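Ticket #4471: structure export looks truncated?
Reporter: QA, pipeline team
Priority: medium

Steps to reproduce: submit the single chain below to the structure queue and open the exported record.
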Amino acid sequence: MRLVTGEGYWSPLAWLAAAAGVLLLAGLLWSRGRRDWKRGTEEELPFLSGEAAPEGARVGGQHLYWGFVEGLRPYVERLRAFHSGFVADYVAWFVVVLAMALLVAMV
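Actual output as written to the record:
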């Protein structure tokens, strides 16, 4: 089965073969994993930045990524002006960026 359009064709069998290839590759990578891992041992405990995390500790993103934020502080400060917390604003930015990307792709 082949659907011919003005821009090319869409073949469900080709997409099915590609999906099967991706699943095969994922299965191959998964099968090469460590077999000596044991559930219920200390290997299962949380590990945070080279140290064992304290019992019941909660580490937020602002602490975990502190070095990145500190290194990129001028850029992050400029971006905070655009951060309002309203989902509608983020959707609007997404639409604007998507429109710009489509314009670039069409030209």
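Status: closed, not a bug. The export was complete when the record was re-opened. Leaving a note from the reviewer for reference: Strands lie at 3-5, 8-10, 47-48, 51-52.
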